[in-house]
Amino acid sequence: MATKIRLSRGGSKKRPHYSIVVADSRKPRDGRFLEKLGTYNPLLPKDHEERVRINLERVQAWLDHGAVPTDRVSRMLEARGVLSTKKRDNPNKGTPGKAAQERAAARAEKQAAAAESESAE
């Protein structure tokens, strides 16, 4: 069975809180899970001690059994020192799309033509 350590959402509309659970990867997000490992409350300040509560011993046991954490949970575990930090670098994320690049090139051509006509006078 492929297990994942992931977040399961609870709470009402616009007031979320999450449980950190181990679940079969084929089950729905808020569906049946194998074990609850902790909680996450995103509404609390980042430095608040109750924002993320994790049973690190059980997490390590599940990791040893082959459970794979999701990206968000792995960031929480990296902050606690359970996992080694991964390099997250996407150099293409900040580049503009094709249409925006074409508009920028057209704008640069216009400015170059305007500067050339001013220098010719």
UniProtKB/TrEMBL annotation:
<dbReference type="Pfam" id="PF00886">
    <property type="entry name" value="Ribosomal_S16"/>
</dbReference>
<dbReference type="GO" id="GO:0005737">
    <property type="term" value="C:cytoplasm"/>
</dbReference>
<feature type="region of interest" description="Disordered">
    <location>
        <begin position="79"/>
        <end position="121"/>
    </location>
</feature>
<dbReference type="InterPro" id="IPR023803">
    <property type="entry name" value="Ribosomal_bS16_dom_sf"/>
</dbReference>
<feature type="compositionally biased region" description="Low complexity">
    <location>
        <begin position="111"/>
        <end position="121"/>
    </location>
</feature>
<dbReference type="GO" id="GO:0006412">
    <property type="term" value="P:translation"/>
</dbReference>
<protein>
    <recommendedName>
        <fullName>Small ribosomal subunit protein bS16</fullName>
    </recommendedName>
</protein>
<keyword id="KW-0687">Ribonucleoprotein</keyword>
<comment type="similarity">
    <text>Belongs to the bacterial ribosomal protein bS16 family.</text>
</comment>
<dbReference type="GO" id="GO:0003735">
    <property type="term" value="F:structural constituent of ribosome"/>
</dbReference>
<dbReference type="InterPro" id="IPR000307">
    <property type="entry name" value="Ribosomal_bS16"/>
</dbReference>
<feature type="compositionally biased region" description="Basic and acidic residues">
    <location>
        <begin position="100"/>
        <end position="110"/>
    </location>
</feature>
<keyword id="KW-0689">Ribosomal protein</keyword>
<dbReference type="GO" id="GO:0015935">
    <property type="term" value="C:small ribosomal subunit"/>
</dbReference>
